[in-house]
């Protein structure tokens, strides 16, 4: 918590009450902090007065039903959208509205729900191109060291046997692993993972969860976004639940599971 809260009652990131009051966060409350975030699209308020903090080396679940505002929030903190209001801090520095390439350089990487590999390049080349600073000028001249590092990253995510396959030859879980390797190639401190479990079989959910846990053990902080709680609550340390663009609840998986407001928001859904 900041020593001088900006407004309202303070609950702060340490609060375990699963039904938060109005909160105010400051730059030192976590590795990534958003305070009173707001995003409007024309007349539509997609995110309103939304505050949260990500603690170093935790796996935070970012949960909410379809249309709740998860992607919009995600896009506001990774520099894809400029917030209409509020403040974002990363590693203590204010980064509100900074473009995505600056956020990547600062150590904040993300995966995309819809994979976007280069379809005519091999798995290892896709990762190598994410390693080099300006891929456009490096297409024809990948150097040995780059390839070697790319191969290591492929191995790290479980693609050691797929280095020379084309992305389209990979199963869905393989494409997710490739997406993770491309994000890791930017050497992040914090990785936001967008809907990793969508389209995965139960056994794959477990294997990807293991990989995410291992990445955390190696020092990474992770935020995992999903509307579906299947698999997620057993992976994460803590969750923030968003609904109608505002925070609905925050707490441990157990607190989230037992929270009546969350249950209502997911009525008929998959809690
Ligand atoms: N670029 C945009 N222009 C206009 N409205 C948008 C835009 N992006 C999102 N919205 C609206 O903002 C609200 C929040 O959408 P958002 O995509 O952030 O939700 P979400 O929680 O990520 O949903 P999902 O789980 O379906 O991906 C929705 O009402 C959506 O229609």
From TrEMBL:
SUPFAM superfamilies: P-loop containing nucleoside triphosphate hydrolases. InterPro entries: AAA+_ATPase (IPR003593), ABC_AA/LPS_Transport (IPR051120), ABC_transporter-like_ATP-bd (IPR003439), BCA_ABC_TP_C (IPR032823), P-loop_NTPase (IPR027417). Residues 7-22 have a biased composition (Low complexity). It comes from the Archaea. Pfam families: ABC_tran (PF00005), BCA_ABC_TP_C (PF12399). One of its GO terms (molecular function) is ATP binding. This is ABC transporter ATP-binding protein. It comes from Halomarina rubra.
């Amino acid at each position: 918590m900041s020593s001088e809260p900006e407004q309202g009652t303070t609950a702060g990131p340490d609060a375990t009450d699963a039904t938060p009051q109005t909160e105010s966060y400051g730059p030192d409350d976590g590795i990534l902090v958003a305070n009173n975030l707001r995003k409007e699209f024309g007349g539509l308020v997609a995110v309103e007065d939304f505050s949260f903090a990500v603690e170093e080396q935790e796996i935070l679940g970012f949960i909410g039903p379809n249309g709740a505002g998860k992607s919009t929030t995600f896009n506001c903190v990774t520099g894809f959208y400029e917030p209409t209001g509020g403040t974002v801090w990363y590693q203590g520095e204010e980064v509100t509205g900074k473009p995505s390439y600056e956020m990547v350089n600062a150590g904040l990487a993300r995966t995309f729900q819809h994979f976007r590999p280069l379809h005519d390049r091999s798995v290892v080349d896709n990762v190598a191109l994410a390693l080099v600073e300006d891929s456009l000028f490096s297409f024809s001249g990948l150097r040995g060291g780059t390839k070697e590092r790319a191969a290591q990253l492929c191995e790290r995510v479980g693609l050691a046997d797929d280095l020379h396959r084309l992305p389209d030859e990979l199963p869905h879980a393989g494409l997710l692993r490739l997406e993770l390797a491309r994000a890791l190639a930017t050497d992040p401190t914090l990785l936001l993972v967008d809907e990793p479990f969508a389209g995965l079989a139960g056994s794959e959910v477990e294997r990807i969860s293991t990989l995410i846990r291992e990445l955390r053990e190696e020092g990474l902080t992770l935020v995992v976004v999903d509307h579906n709680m299947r698999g997620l609550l057993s992976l994460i340390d803590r969750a923030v639940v968003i609904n109608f663009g505002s925070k609905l609840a925050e707490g441990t998986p157990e607190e989230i599971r037992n929270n009546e407001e969350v249950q209502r928001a997911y009525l008929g859904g998959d809690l």
